[in-house]
Amino acid sequence: MYFLEGNIGVGKTTFLSLLPEYLPDLDIVPEPVDIWDRSVFGQSLLANFYANPNRWAYTLETLTLICRSQDHLREQKKTNHKRLLERSIYSGHYCFATTGFKNKCLSEIEWDIYNKWVNFLIHKQCLPPRGFVYLKATPETCFDRVQKRNRPAEESLTLKYLKQVDIVHDDFLVHKKGLSKNLQQIPTLVLDCNEDFLHNPKNMRKHAEKLSGFMQNPR
Amino acid sequence: MYILEGNIGVGKSTFLSLLKKQCSDLEVITEPVEDWSKQTYGQSLLANFYQNTPRWAYTLETLTMFCRARDHMQEQKTTSPNRIFERSIYSGHYCFARNSYESGCMLKLEWRIYNQWANFLIHQECSPPIGFIYLKASPEACFSRVQKRNRSSEAAITLDYMKQIDFWHDHFLINKKEVSPTLSNIPVLTLDCNQDFLNNPENMRRHAERVKAFLEKTQYGQTQFGDKTCTFSKATSE
Prior knowledge:
The structure holds 2 protein chains of 2 kinds.
Chain A: E1 2-6, H1 12-22, E2 27-29, H2 33-37, H3 45-51, H4 53-75, E3 83-86, H5 89-102, H6 108-125, E4 131-136, H7 139-149, H8 159-173, H9 181-184, E5 188-192, H10 201-216
Parallel strand pairs in A: 1-3, 1-4, 2-3, 4-5
Chain B: E1 2-6, H1 12-22, E2 27-29, H2 34-38, H3 40-51, H4 53-75, E3 83-86, H5 89-102, H6 108-125, E4 131-136, H7 139-149, H8 159-173, H9 181-184, E5 188-192, H10 201-220, H11 232-235
Parallel strand pairs in B: 1-3, 1-4, 2-3, 4-5
């Protein structure tokens, strides 16, 4: 299995919706974002989090962790390699939770408990993917796209936050900083997504071709 | 494995230490309270929890669930059946977390998320025990024992809280209401612990006899419970 990673607003969902046209054999598993953005009893946890991160970071991180782990554990048992999953327990951990802790949205206690779950689930139960596919655009471009799509939960999202998330994605996928040994060896395909690929089929075709080649020969 | 359950203060630790003396081939495993009440961060989490329960209940419940699930999954790999655990992921869930939610300490949103974990860990990854042993005494008796033992972390416990916990224990172990089907078939031995058994060896001897008989009876018919091994790799499919 492969993971599709990238900043908020880079166009992961769009990318995945266009991909079947080019790679019809590929199984696609979208991020279960509606679980944390669904309005449960009048509250979206994601909206709560953006509005008051200190109160909600731990809650959000544990929810995303359990959802991603369940998906991961289910998917890693399948033998067909041509599967692309949107986001992963790895970006959830190395990008989002870590940023939350750096920003002091998670207290020491919460970080400690969160890491108990991570060690238990990620490091003991989850097998690394065959490769990562990293959609990369400048934080400014991503921010612009976030504003255009106008999702209610994302109203309080700032450019500053997208810049942080961009840096930790590079650390994780390009520089492979602080990763466990078995993750360091996993190859990453970086696709430059600064140019629009939704209205520009040529760009999208190039991305799909690169992806196809990567899956045939990831190393 | 067997699980010993009961209200705070009913005498679980005392019971296990005395039982061990009478049944030497029995292994007893005490509750891993150190993870959330003895370590430094556990102390501060408990302190946070008592100061501002609605803010910290979800955090505390996920920590206790983690510790219990980890231990349960570790222990279920051991094949020797004659082991008794103090408390479990089940009472943590059906009694304490449930009470925390019902008494308004967790939001519905948090309860939903908590249950997502519970469904995954408890119902998919943990195999049920062979039987439960339920030490039962009135909340008043438990409360008076709690006051006598005078543990600092228990200073804030009220009789009202003990009554709630008593109710949820009965709900779970006697009435078996709202319990998952795999658990409602598990036999329960209820021991009346209103009378003191620490200073009354005759009472303790009777309890021990009943435990032994329960162990024999449940293991004699063990095949009916089927394969109890449950691993991560095969338990996750829906």
